[in-house]
Amino acid sequence: MDDTHGSGHGAGGPGERPGPGHPPAGFGNELSSEALPGTLPIGRNSPRRPARGLYAEQLSGSAFTEPRADNRRSWLYRIRPSAAHPPMRRVESGTLFGAPFTDLPPDPNRMRWNPLPDPAPGTDFVRGLWTLGGNGDVRTRSGVAIHLYHADTPMTDRVFCDADGELLLVPERGTLLLRTEFGPLRAAPGHIALIPRGVRFRVELPDGPVRGYVCENHGRPFTLPELGPIGANGLAAPRDFIAPEAAWEEAEGPVEVITKYGGALWTAEWDHTPLDVVAWHGTLVPYVYDLRRFNVLGSISFDHPDPSIFTVLTSPSDTPGLANVDFVVFAPRWLVGEDTFRPPYFHRNVMSEYMGLIEGAYDAKAEGFVPGGGSLHPMMSAHGPDRETFERASAEERGPQKIDDGLAFMFETRWPVTLTEQALNAGHRQRDYDRVWEGLERNFRP
Ligand SMILES: [Fe+2]
């Protein structure tokens, strides 16, 4: 569609160590990048005449007055200001829906799905978004929506922007090349990408078709969890969050800019690309993170810790310790607990849990939970290991055991998840999921 200029070579993959032209990195840092030297103003944000004839624009992801620890904003130096665009008109959103989800009552049943079927040929990332359900309300910036995506076609002459929330992308198949206003980022299976609310981006598919999961966070932006007695290190390290290097595009001619706002899609045809940022600095930036860098902590004596110990990112609520949503990863790790039932225990939870599988298998389910699929365990609905897993794990005491054949994750959210009709009625939903807990024997010996 156009030429990309600048130092952002589209590398920025978190698997690569920063080499010459280190990408900016560090979660929550004040980062900066300029595709042409001498573009960022020094000692101020909004000079009378920014260098190289650019326009300065601030993007605020928090209210101006939020405390420093929560404040997120960036300054963009762009070829034309974002304000220069025509009116937006509402368009069909297909299989993408927005909160509040009111078509169905909240359903207490445990649910499980197989992967989405392949998309219709010609489906790009935006058209391939498929909403499973969610909670809260985009109009009060609360809760989440859970989507899946599948696409076989790159976005061309189309750019997407989600004003309703931050997007946490979890690729399961294929690489996403995210051409953002801040520059390009690559996210492959095993990585996550975080796109702040309001940041515009285009999705290209350098390795062909893609499939994955999306947590659309309407609430407070994701941040790293506090570590408490764990200390200064552990879990996800801030420096492993890689931001893009600035790169601008020169496309003139029509570009469709699609904005998700109030749960619906709105479109406008711009006469130039909005990906025209030559330099930026700030704290509101997209990131990629390699989940294989997650420092997994666990018990070295007995018992299975609560899965909150696997939290990568959390979106806090107004209640201390209660997340709007947590993003949790079940990464390769050793299990060494003595006299301990090692798989996840049976439990009922005030939170609602959506799980997905990026690769391999998950240690609480012997079968039926497959990469690209997902399960939902609603508020207070009992769940845990299936019969086969229970019998295997309780049979005998085992020595140290490495779990290294899978990468699963969870979106754990404070409110019940209400499904869309397409999720409840999907042909790829497993109608017999409850049966995985059938046949758990009565072993009671009074
Ligand atoms: Fe659970």
From TrEMBL:
Q: Which GO terms describe its biological process?
A: L-phenylalanine catabolic process; L-tyrosine catabolic process
Highest taxon of the source?
Answer: Bacteria
- Top enzyme class of this protein? oxidoreductase
Catalyzed reactions = homogentisate + O2 = 4-maleylacetoacetate + H(+)
Cofactors needed by this protein, per the record, are: Fe cation
Give the residues the record marks as binding homogentisate.
Y362, H383
What residues make up the catalytic site?
A: H304
Identify the residues that the record assigns to the Homogentisate 1,2-dioxygenase N-terminal domain, covering every copy: 25-291
Q: Does the keyword Metal-binding apply?
A: yes
Q: Per UniProt, which keywords does this protein have?
A: Dioxygenase, Iron, Metal-binding, Oxidoreductase, Phenylalanine catabolism, Tyrosine catabolism
Against Pfam families, the record matches this protein to: HgmA_C, HgmA_N
Ranges of biased composition (kind: Gly residues): 7-18
- The UniProt annotation puts the region (Disordered) at 1-50
Name all Homogentisate 1,2-dioxygenase C-terminal domain ranges: 292-444
- Give the protein's biological function: Involved in the catabolism of homogentisate (2,5-dihydroxyphenylacetate or 2,5-OH-PhAc), a central intermediate in the degradation of phenylalanine and tyrosine. Catalyzes the oxidative ring cleavage of the aromatic ring of homogentisate to yield maleylacetoacetate.
How does the annotation summarize its subunit structure?
Hexamer; dimer of trimers.
Name of this chain's protein = Homogentisate 1,2-dioxygenase
**Where does this protein come from, organism-wise?**
Streptomyces calidiresistens
Gene encoding the protein: hmgA
